[in-house]
Design goal:
oxidoreductase, Oxidoreductase, eight-stranded mixed sheet, NAD(P)-bd_dom_sf
Length: about 280
């Protein structure tokens, strides 16, 4: 199994739970030295020495390509967990992609696409896309996903990237079903981790907060539980399928926006993402 961003927050808790269940887990992290320190601790705590570390920078498609090239063997679960949130100012990758879209979605898309054969070899693999209620904030801005014309807004950019994660799961569920690959998206909930350093995660009402362990629960469910075997193309909240919203809820955000699970949008995003990855592959 692979967990991107598995060295901190809900990623580390996801690794912990999967390792305790006996899985071999690779932490894919931008800073492998820091990740190795986490892996050492998790090996000791879980009694599982099969927690590995590999370098991966999702904002750099060359790094993604190197990770894919180095991989061997089947993959039973890929948890696309790593992410950044609400960068205060507009940042771009060297290829000119908006940084949240590139990190949260496009890098994961390129990674998953590159690992397809290894996922298919597992005969029943699962791809888990960690989204959020941010999908309720914004659709994909088809004509300007990188904010070349639209005035940059941190939460709109974040919302777009998380909508893209849900749409990726929807498209993948139908496109890769013949390979025995299931794909689902989820909202982990409001957890005060380093991800929320730009938004003041501790400002979330106490009743709505989750611990990192609680936040990881839905990821672990989708990655490993027999309860959801063969379930694909869905969005989950609190270990249950999320409510489809026709407009943003007036109270606490919950569920998934109707545009985030639209099959036409999913196919449109797939085509756009393939073009972007191929354009910037080298």
């Amino acid at each position: 199994m692979i967990v991107t961003g598995g060295a901190g927050g809900i990623g580390a808790e996801t690794v912990r739970s999967l390792a305790r269940a006996g899985a071999t887990v690779t932490i894919a992290a931008r800073n492998p030295d820091a990740a190795e320190a986490v892996a050492v601790r998790l090996r000791s705590e879980t009694g599982n020495d099969r927690i590995l570390v590999s370098a991966l920078d999702l904002a750099d498609l060359r790094s993604v390509g190197a990770f894919v090239e180095a991989w061997s063997g089947p993959i039973h679960a890929l948890v696309n967990n790593a992410g950044i949130m609400a960068l205060p100012s507009l940042e771009r990758t060297p290829e000119g992609c908006e940084m949240q879209f590139a990190t949260n979605f496009l890098g994961h898309f390129a990674l998953t696409l590159g690992l397809r054969a290894h996922l298919a070899a597992a005969d029943g693999a699962r791809v888990v896309w960690v989204s959020s209620t941010g999908n309720l904030f914004a659709p994909v801005f088809w004509d300007d996903p990188h904010f070349l014309f639209i005035p940059y807004d941190p939460l709109l950019a974040y919302g777009q990237s998380k909508t893209a994660c849900v749409l990726a799961a929807v498209a993948m569920a139908s496109r890769w079903a013949s390979d025995g690959i299931c794909a689902n998206a989820l909202n982990p909930g409001a957890i005060a981790t380093n991800l929320q350093r730009h938004t003041g995660g501790l400002k979330t009402p106490e009743l709505l907060r989750k611990s990192p362990q609680q936040g990881a629960a839905t990821s672990v469910l989708l990655a490993a539980s027999p309860l959801v075997a063969q379930i694909s193309g869905r969005y989950f909240d609190d270990c249950n399928e999320g409510i489809v919203q026709q407009q943003r809820p007036a109270d606490a955000p919950q569920g998934v926006a109707c545009y985030s699970i639209d099959e036409g949008n999913a196919e449109r995003l797939w085509s756009m993402a393939v073009e972007l990855v191929e354009r910037h592959r080298d």
